[in-house]
Design brief:
- By secondary structure, this protein is an alpha/beta fold.
- It folds into two domains: 3-219, Spore Coat Polysaccharide Biosynthesis Protein SpsA, Chain A; 226-390, HAD superfamily/HAD-like (Rossmann fold), CATH 3.40.50.1000.
- The protein is 31% helix and 23% strand.
- It contains 13 helices and 19 strands.
- The strands form five sheets. It has an eight-stranded mixed beta sheet. A five-stranded parallel beta sheet has the order 17-16-15-18-19. It has a two-stranded antiparallel sheet with strand order 2-3.
- β18, α12 and β19 (368-371) form a beta-alpha-beta unit.
- The radius of gyration is 24 Å and the shape is elongated.
- It starts with a strand and ends with a helix.
Length: 391
């Protein structure tokens, strides 16, 4: 059974008052990108490819910022005609005949999505309660034989993540209701709701003290700022000294990868040796013209390369102590310059290339390296990011 994702993002964010007067909580900037894009990033790298964002407040802002369709990844905003609450909002999912993973748009936990989805039962995620001190019933939960129970006091609470079967969603009526109080709580009382515990960090930006801490915590949870790529053989076919646009052929998934990373707010930077310039096979102008044509093509695809570093020297003509030689891979010069400019380090970037030269350059610069695999680049990058975040 296919599982789609729905993100609840229709609230007014009243707890944050002035902060959410002009912009909804999920779209608040955290370290240079909307908070909800951290949720989307973690969902996409866990192979959730069809995502619906349920919106109401400032709906045009959401649609402008979040709608996207590429490769097999689709993100679509669905707006309510009137405020329906977190329960009533799910009525809009009835026409989509699948089970749903449902997330709150103002909270995140890097729980194991794959394990969570294994048991195809109505369930919720339980996280450790480090924030809420009230006696709200869903702040004091535990498990008994995998099913959720209410307790007078517990270290676990509702983590704002749900798996709902399509037959349950089909019973939701088109009226205002609360997902927690009108759907989840009755299931708990009837002993019909399963649970999944995680000890992973949990962040809810709806509380002001958490919102203040959010930038620091998100740098820890999802630190990635940029991905560095070799060019020939990684993004495009390597025919040897490619400098004419007619010979520039994108490898499968390359353009979609760039577009996706742009969408998620992750910088795309190319690190390439271009010794053909130094060898006289083509000149610097040829390289820059090709680069311009590549960028024009990407612009038509609503994508872009954020920066490019290249070494034009012929290593056969340079002595071993040449400063210029330090830029040429496997030396780390270009990578180090890039890291300094964009404030990158081994915790917030990695390098993808197709050769031992790329691997050594990454090692010399002190950042992680991933070898280009014989598969669509977008599938590899999703896997690489997942591995990067989990290790």
């Amino acid at each position: 059974m296919k599982t789609n994702l729905a993100i609840l993002a229709g609230g007014f964010g009243t707890r944050l008052k002035k902060i959410t007067k002009k912009i909804p909580k999920p779209l608040i900037d955290i370290n240079g990108k909307p908070f909800i894009k951290y949720i989307l990033l973690y969902s996409i790298i866990n192979n959730i490819n069809q995502i619906y964002i349920l919106i109401r407040h400032k709906k045009l802002l959401f649609k402008k910022t979040l709608n996207i369709s590429l490769a097999n990844i689709k993100v679509k905003c669905i707006s309510e005609n009137k405020p329906m609450g977190t329960g009533g909002a799910l009525f809009n999912l009835k026409k989509i005949k699948t089970d749903f993973l449902i997330l709150n748009g103002d909270s995140i936990s890097l729980f194991n999505i794959i394990e969570f989805l294994k048991l195809k039962k109505n369930k919720i995620l339980l996280v450790k309660n480090k924030t809420y001190k009230s006696n709200n019933q869903l702040n004091n939960l535990d498990l008994r034989k995998q099913k959720v129970i209410l307790k007078k006091k517990s270290i676990y609470m509702n983590g704002g993540v749900y798996y709902l079967k399509k037959d349950l969603i089909n019973k939701i009526s088109p009226k205002k209701s609360s997902l927690e109080n009108d759907i989840i709580l009755p299931l708990i009382k009837k002993n019909m709701l399963y649970g999944f515990k995680t000890n992973k960090e949990f962040l809810d930006i709806g509380i002001k003290k958490n919102f203040i801490k959010a930038p620091k915590l998100m740098r820890k949870l999802i630190p990635i700022k940029a991905i560095l790529f070799d060019r020939d053989g990684t993004l495009n076919k390597d025919f040897g000294y490619v400098y004419k646009y007619k010979n520039f052929k994108w490898l499968k998934g390359s353009v979609d990868t760039i577009k996706l990373l742009n969408y998620l707010g992750i910088k795309v930077i190319i690190i390439t040796n271009q010794s053909g310039i130094g060898r006289g096979y083509y000149n610097k102008k040829d390289f820059l013209i090709l680069t311009e044509k590549i960028n024009l093509y990407l612009k038509k695809q609503n994508a872009k390369i954020d920066d490019i570093y290249y070494s034009e020297i012929n290593p056969d003509l340079e002595n071993n102590i040449s400063k210029k030689l330090f830029d040429r891979k496997p030396n780390p010069g270009m990578i180090l310059k890039c890291m300094k400019k964009y404030n990158l380090n081994k915790k917030n970037c990695f390098f993808v290339g197709n050769s031992i030269v790329d691997k050594i350059a990454a090692k010399n610069a002190g950042i992680r390296f991933y070898q280009k695999e014989n598969k669509s680049l977008i599938d590899q990058i999703k896997q690489n990011i997942k591995h990067f975040l989990e290790n």
